[in-house]
Each structure stands twice: as C-alpha cells, then as structure tokens.
Amino acid sequence: MIPQAPKGTDDILPPASEKWRTLLRGFEDLARRYGYALTMTPLFEATELFSRGVGEETEVVEKQMYTFADKSDRSLTLRPEATASVVRAYLGAGLQGVFKGYYAGPMFRYEQPQSGRRRQFFQVGVEYLAEPSPDADVEVIEVGYRLLADAGVTGVGVRLNTLGDPADRAAYRDELRSFLRGRAGDLSPDARRRLEGNPLRVLDSKADAEVVADAPAPIDSIGGEAAAHFSGVRAGLDRAGIPYEIAPRLVRGLDYYNRTVFEYVSADYTAAQDALGGGGRYDPLAEMLGGPPVAAVGLAMGVDRIVLAMPDPEPAGPDVFVVLADPQRRAEALGMVGRLREAGLWAEMDLGERSLKAQFKVAGRRSARLVAVVGDEWDEGEVTVRRMADGEESRVAIEEVPAWASR
Ligand code: HAM
Fold first, then answer.
1. 175 C-alpha vs ligand 1 centroid, how far in Å?
2. Which of the residues 21, 196, 330, 406 has an alpha carbon 20 to 30 A from that of 259?
3. Beta pairing, strands 244-246 & 156-162
C-alpha cells in the first residue's frame, strides 16, 4: 500500500498550487514595499520558548503542540507560530532599535482537521519591533488588508479590539473572573477549569458563546494611555480607508498581546474557521522571554484559508511552445527553446518523440500562446509561428520569435 500523507496535512500540487504561488509572490513584494526584510527561524524550537512566549494556559500550548524529545533528550516543539521565534532571534542576535521582518512558512498545531484548519498550515507574516507608535499598528493592519485585496478576496473587513496594558488586563481578568464565577453553572467544564487560571481564554470558547455575550469587555477597563493609543490606531485606519468594526470580546488565543488585537474576515468566506489572519501588539513578549522591554506589533495570515477565499487565477501557459516538424532538427529546436528562456520567456517543448499533431495537442493542453514550428524553413533562417488564440500563422525570422511571443 502507498503510504498516505499524515492526517491534517496537504500536498499542494498544480494547478491548485498556482494560487499559492500568486499569493506568496504577492506577499513578498508587498512586504518589501513596506520595508520588511526576509527573516527565517527554525521550524523547531526549545519547547520552553512557546510555553513562556505563547503562554502555558493557552489552547495552543496546552493541547496543540507537536512536542518530542531529541536523541539528547531535549524537549523540542515544531513551531505552532513564528512570533516568539522572531523575538527570540532579535534578542539572541543582540539587535537593538527598529527591526522589520517578514516570514513565510509552515506552522504545526495538533487540531481537529477540517477545511481551512490543518495540522500543518502555512502562514505569511510580518513583525515590527521596537516601534511603539500606533501608526506601526496601522501599517501592519494595512499590510494584511492589502494582501487580501491584491489576492482578489472580496468583502474583507477587520475586527478590532484593544486589551489595554498589562495592569488593565490584570484588573479586567479579575472582573471577568467574578462575572464568570457568577455564571459557573452555565459554563462548559473546560471554561470552569480555565476561569481560575486564565479567564480570558473563556472568551475564545465557542461552547460558552452565550455566557460570553454578556461578559464585561476589556475595552471598558483600559487606562488613559492605552485608550489614546487605540484612538490613534482608529484614526490611522480611517485615514487609510480600511474598514473595521470593534469586536469588544476579541482577545485572541495567545498570551503575549497587549493593546491592539485584530483579525481579518471576509463577508464572502463564511467557514467555521473564518479568520483569514490576525495579529496585534505584543509589547510584553520580549520581557516574557527574559529580555529588555521591546515594543512590538505584527500579524500572521493563514494561506490555506486565503486560497479557499481567492478567485481562480487566469489560466497561464507558456509564451512559446516549440514543436518539431522534422525530427532531424531536434538540436536546433532545443537551441531555440534555450534562447527563448534566456530572453526571459516561458518556453517549452515536448521531449517525447511525438507526431506533429500530437505536439500541437500538448501545446493546446498547456495553454501555450504561440507555437513555433521548426521545419524546413529553418534553412532560410525562419520558423512558422501560430497564434493559438485565433490560429493565425506567419513565417517569421528566427530572431523575431521573442518579439512575436511578447505581442
Ligand atoms: P493566530 O491567530 O494563531 O496568530 O494565527 C494567524 C492565522 O493563521 C489565523 O488567523 C489563521 O488564518 C491561520 N491559522 C491558524 N491556525 C491554523 C490552522 N490550524 N490551520 C489553518 N490556518 C491556521 C498567530 O499565529 C500570531 N503569531 C500572529 C501574530 C504575529 N501576532 C503578532 N505577530
């Protein structure tokens, strides 16, 4: 029997991979235009990074990590996210001052797989370190918004909230805890257990949505500085023309956030797992990892979900498909393919020894725009080209083919 891919993982094959390619290229261009530089960190890390960074009592750390011991008995974990790694790398390299990094890669979470929720999934993200301005939050939110717009995802909106500063959060936590204690009888067993340690997590719980709807919201207990920051973020989003709505109970599933948190949703993508991406400000994280305070804001977008919400791309095919009318001229035809590729064109040739008709069929299946026929005309320095859209044929000089292909 042929081994199967593990549960919750996917092979991304053509033609579906074309959407991935479009999105990943678009993201890289976009991130560079905003001044972010490629940042690569390991796919596995010391488990402690996530228990300290993401938070011991989060769903991700409690239930979803792929943790294993290596041959020297170190506890390692396949990264469930990349933010903690980027901050670890920044601190570890002794960097100071503003750092803007982007990344793209697979993350791993042991979740119950379904459409858009995978055990290996792919994120693209940016992290903006050492910049406390609310305009940094706005910039990051804009990057995610642009990515979705450029990918053709329609009906995109941002859910926005603020968690306040750590002291506000502690006060809110107490208030929420006493509210939840009063409703303990209506809570799920998980929520009852959580409410003592980390009651904020109850706000994420789908099973407790009814109780949560009446719960106090963090925004009602934030201090003056956090409130001013939030006004700055809102003003910036208005300026940038990015639609958002305040989601007062959005807290997100990771413990490092303070102040701004956000998620992207699309009115036209209404799956159970509807966040196409999310992020926020995480000023506390560097200190949680034992470093000095470093202001920070970032986001990660879920590529597996975005491709589900993206329209199909225009079918793409080779600029030129070279076919061989005379098998004796194989070397010339191969040489021509090589020169077209050097000229920056997408050029192909069928390498089997098939009839002329069969080669044309392959060219059609590949959606080639132009077919160049290498035959007897070669002796006069020419080939016959056929424009596949309308079948029009012309004899053209060999060196003219690239120009014809670009028409
Ligand atoms: P997150 O909300 O856990 O945040 O993940 C970000 C996005 O990754 C989600 O909105 C979703 O689109 C996608 N995602 C998460 N889990 C899965 C899954 N199992 N299958 C498919 N897609 C998934 C973070 O990871 C933070 N590190 C974001 C961040 C960056 N905050 C600050 N900087």
1. 28
2. 196
3. parallel
